[in-house]
C-alpha cells in the first residue's frame, strides 16, 4: 500500500487561503483609507470654498451697511415728517372745523320755523337748545344735521310742548345732543391683573 502524505498540500492550501484573505482584508482597508482621504479632501475643499464665499458675502454686507444706515435714517425722517403733517392737518381741521360746523348748523335750521337759543360744544359733543313750531320741524332739523359732514350722530335729549297764550300758539322746546368731527371716544384702560 502506498501512502501519500496530503498534510503538506492541505497546509499549503490553508496558507494560500489565509494569504488571500489577508490580502483582501488589507486591500479593503487600503481602499477604505483611500475613500476616507478622498472624502476628507473633498469636504476640506468644500469648506474652503464656503469660507471664501462667506468672506465675500461679509465684504459685500459691509458695503451695504452704509446704505442700510442711510435708509434707516431716511425712514426715521419720513416718519417724523408724516407725524408733523398729521399735526398740521389736525390743526387746520381744528381751525376751520368750527366755522364749517356753524355753517352746517345754519343751513340745517328750517327758516322761520325753528330758533336756536343756545349752542354749547365740549370735547366733540355739541348741545343745541331751541324752540320749534312743532315736533315735525324738530325732526326735520335733526335729519338735516345728520346729513351734514361735520356732525356724525344726533340724539334728541328732551322735547316738551309749551303754550304761548299771548300769541295763541303752541311751540316745542327741545334739547339735542350731537357728536361732531372733534369727538374722540375715551380709550378703556385694560383691567389690572391680580398679583
User: How confident overall, as mean pLDDT?
Assistant: 85
**What helical percentage do the residues reach?**
55-70%
Shape annotation: rod-shaped
**Count of DSSP-assigned helices:** 2
Strands ordered across the widest β-sheet = 1-2-4-3
Reconstruct the topology from this structure.
Layout: H1 7-108, E1 114-122, E2 125-132, H2 135-146, E3 151-164, E4 169-180
Antiparallel strand pairs: 1-2, 2-4, 3-4
Helix pairs in contact: 1-2
Structural summary, described in words:
- The protein is α+β, with helices and mostly antiparallel strands and 195 residues long.
- The chain folds into 2 domains: 9-97; 109-180, Alpha-Beta Plaits (2-Layer Sandwich).
- It has 2 helices and 4 strands; from the N terminus they run H-E-E-H-E-E.
- The protein has helices at 7-108, 135-146, and strands at residues 114-122, 125-132, 151-164, 169-180.
- A 4-stranded antiparallel β-sheet has the order 1-2-4-3, with helices on one face.
- Strand 3 (151-164) and strand 4 form a beta hairpin.
- Helix 1 (7-108) crosses helix 2 (135-146).
Amino acid at each position: 500500500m502506498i501512502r501519500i502524505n496530503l498534510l503538506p498540500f492541505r497546509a499549503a492550501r490553508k496558507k494560500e487561503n489565509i494569504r488571500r484573505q489577508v490580502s483582501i482584508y488589507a486591500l479593503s482597508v487600503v481602499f477604505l483609507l483611500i475613500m476616507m482621504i478622498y472624502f476628507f479632501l473633498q469636504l476640506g475643499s468644500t469648506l474652503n470654498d464656503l469660507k471664501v464665499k462667506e468672506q465675500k458675502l461679509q465684504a459685500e454686507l459691509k458695503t451695504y451697511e452704509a446704505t442700510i444706515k442711510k435708509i434707516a435714517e431716511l425712514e426715521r425722517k419720513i416718519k417724523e415728517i408724516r407725524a408733523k403733517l398729521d399735526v398740521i392737518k389736525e390743526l387746520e381741521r381744528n381751525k376751520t372745523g368750527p366755522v364749517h360746523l356753524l355753517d352746517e348748523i345754519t343751513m340745517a335750521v328750517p327758516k322761520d320755523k325753528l330758533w336756536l337759543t343756545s349752542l354749547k360744544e365740549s370735547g366733540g359733543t355739541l348741545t343745541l337748545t331751541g324752540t320749534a313750531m312743532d315736533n315735525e320741524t324738530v325732526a326735520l332739523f335733526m335729519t338735516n344735521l345728520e346729513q351734514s359732514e361735520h356732525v356724525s350722530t344726533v340724539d334728541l335729549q328732551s322735547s316738551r310742548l309749551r303754550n304761548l297764550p299771548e300769541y295763541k300758539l303752541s311751540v316745542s322746546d327741545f334739547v339735542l345732543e350731537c357728536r361732531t368731527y372733534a369727538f374722540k371716544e375715551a380709550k378703556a384702560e385694560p383691567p389690572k391683573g391680580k398679583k
